[in-house]
Amino acid sequence: MDIFINDLGNLFTLTNILCILLGTVVGMVFGALPGLGTVIAVALLLPVTFTLPPLAGILMLLATYQAGEYGGSISAILLGVPGTPQAAATVIDGHPMAVNDSPGKALSYSLLSSSIGGIFGGFVLIFISVPLAKFALNFGSPEYFLLGVIGLMAVGLLSGTDKIKSSISVLLGLIAGTVGVDTLTGVNRATFNQPELMDGINLVAFLVGMFAISELFMMISKGLNTSYSGDGQNLKTGLTAKEVKGIVKPTLIGSLIGAGTGILPGIGGGASCWFAYAVVSKTSKNPEAFGKGSPEGIAAPESSNNASAGGALVPFLALGIPGSAAIAIIMGAFIMHGIQPGPNVFTAERDLVYGIFYGFILTTVAMYLVGRLLTPAFSRVLVVPNSFLVSIVFVLCLIGIYASKSAFFDLWLALGIGVVFYVLKRLNYSVSSVIIAYVLAPIIEENFRRSLTLANGNYDVFFSSIYSIVLVLMIVAALGGSIFADIKKRRTTTG
Amino acid sequence: MFTFLKKTATTSLAVAAMVMATAPTMVAAEGYPEKPITWIVPDGAGGGLDTIVRTIYPFVEKNLPNDATFVLKNLPGATQTIAVSAVYNAEPDGYTIGQASVAPLTIMPHLGKTSYSGYEDFELISNVFDAAHYIVVPEGSPFANLEELLAHAKANPGEVRVGVDGVFNVQHLPLLNLELSAEVDLNEITYKSSAETKKALLGGEIEAGIMPSHIIISEYEAGTLNPIVDVMEVKPDYFADIPSLKDLGYTPSQLFVGVIAPKGTPSDIQATLAGAIEAALQEPELIEALAKRKIMINYNDSETYLGRMQELDVVNKGILVDLGVLK
Amino acid sequence: MTWRNMNSIMSIVLIMGAIGYALNLNHSASQAIFFASSGVGPTYFPNVLAGLVVILSIVTLVKNLRDTSDGNTAKITTPNAGYILATFALVVAFLLSWQFLGFFYVNVFILLTALMTLYRIEFGFKNSLTVALITAVATTGFLYVLFGQILALSF
User: Fold this and answer.
1) Complex ipTM, two decimals?
2) What is the mean pLDDT of residues A81-102?
3) Is some CB atom of chain C closer than 8 A to the CB atom of A387?
4) Is B192 at the interface with chain A, CB within 8 A?
5) Burial class (CB in 10 A: 0-12, 13-18, 19+), B30
6) From the CA of B74, how many Å to the nearest CA of chain A?
7) Is this prediction's pTM over 0.95?
8) How close, in Å, is residue A274 to chain C by CA atoms?
């Protein structure tokens, strides 16, 4: 197959470049603002694309999507507030590094690994999208269930000092994920007669309440007229060759995991960053540095969420299956231009598709350049006194929640969640595992029950394919490994 | 007991609302509209229905007098009932209208999940477009048509797995009805969205699935998915030679999306709005934009729209009664 | 309040929350009209989860009550607690006013002015009010241009 675009000139037009730059800036800024996020950025730019040529419009949305994935990490690193769920894992090491060491460095680590992840995703898209999309179809409901369980085990690895409190946090996340109308039976579950809860607890309200509002209360305690790094030192953003070398391995692992989970519609970036974080923290030479500002702990989730952005385009383009809300909106742009994503898109719209592929890599380059340009400015956020930060970020959070669904209910919910999690945080309940449990809950439960329905109640369904057997073996191995490690640890401490 | 009380309360409220609504509200449409009209969209920004309304509304604005403008308000969720409730609770002054599909008007009220009691609580302005949903089988399926599928299901109860994107919705009810009238037992598998159903079909997890026509065109052309029967009444021209349930002697369902207004909206304002929508749907530019997206424009005036709604409501209620869900 | 008391209160809140969740869940499920033919029902997982929260919270509660170390019996100190409460109250007032009266941008302006004046009061009322007004005007203006004009969102 001739995978090289006939006329690269089609790609490097002024319109395309300007559209990519606009999308990048909008995506990065919206991603960085807690509550607004990628989906809203893409949705808001969608009408603009109606008036543009197809390639330019689609590249603008892809640039927004890609930059939003990175933008979410900016606030995760600087404020400890992930702008998007995909950036939740970045908080664990990104924020400590920004506060204790250097915000500029933390952002640079994130930008570099995000860009590498993005380019990796782009290459996956160019070279193996069709076979990969077919491969992804082998993962049915039983396999999704097992993947969800593995994800939950990855959360277990992150647990804090108090194992029981961490378990309660995970359970709270799972419970939050079950609220709403049950997909399989239509039963209202713990909706307390609120129509706003029928589709579940709004992810944006949950995320903002849990991370942003509670963190704003914390910031007030830290002093209102001081700032994180009061002296304006350590804002330089350059990385030395040695520092770059240190994140090569985690970035590659993250990219692979990100692209691999990205191709599975419905799992996506929200889970992939935790997989990557868990794997890298377990295989690292300095496991004790994790959670305290390890560069590897930034590189792994960051590369994986951007690689999953490229990965998510695989089933979307090759099969017409959008894997996330943002991709579904991008699909709207395709349809609006009369293009049907699916098996024929590679032949019927050949130039466009390959334009998108190469354009996708271009969006990553744009993300890197715009990021380099804006990073110094972003890192200065930590020099701004808390009085300004708290009041402005609070207002932005509330707007972000409202913009997603125009529901006042969500605003009150977020405020309530913010207060509860402020207290939970102070009592050492681990908060970061709540969000991943919330994301995984429906994946685990629905697919478990759907698998049983598919098999008319027969549990053999979880061992019926080679993929499910491999996943089961992985679960068993991981369980065995951690039990073994526990025993070993106990022996060394007692003897 | 509580539910009984609550139901009585809602019914009496609804009756009160209806009585109040019948009081003549003869606000002259002259000078209408004097301020922006709110158009409630039951879908999130960027969603399928949202982008359709966003394509249509400038053309409706153009065909309204007095430099009319619309303000779009997205109220997604709960099978459109949040948006439809917002229309129900709005002032019937002609400054709030809403987009609505059939599920929030003819299914959800029967399930007791709404504050309003049904389509009768609204003024139906006009229908805008129809959609078709097909029973689809993957490439290499042993079933070339519906008869073969039903025959196999009859011989092997519970063996044929059919994917739908939710329960008690425009896909699930016709499927249950088909099972009742053909006396077969299918294994209905629920997915969260048509995208998930499509993935399951392509991955061979289910034998058949119900999917909207416009998202399977590419697969149909490539031969990876084959629609075998239209579940809805209206057929798109690109699938014109595929039979519908009606062609095969079964009761079809309907899926149409129109514009509604709060009960008691002055009738001349309703006429003004309907006229503008009708004129907009004849603009070549809009027709082209919607055709590109495979939207089947189907303008119905208020009376036809109401007639179809009544007919469908009877059918859906009948299915729910037959299933034992309703008494 | 000591850490020990706060921990106990939280455990009790969690237990009550889990029970309330389970009660509401099973109540609405008991009115369900239709269940999937085979497999695990809609209340199975949620009940397991709620049960686990109750059990683990009881364990936490007991552990906490038996923990009489200095760290646990110390008083909780929250610097700027008054500011936190004031912020919370102002946000509640803002939400109420926005929800029931409307005028989003006016409310944003007032909220920002109030918060900033309060936060910077140590620099003197006049100074903090001036800075607050400038910040509020700039931010509200930016929000109005971005959301109201460019993105045409209605609040």
Assistant:
1) 0.94
2) 87
3) yes
4) yes
5) exposed
6) 7
7) no
8) 22
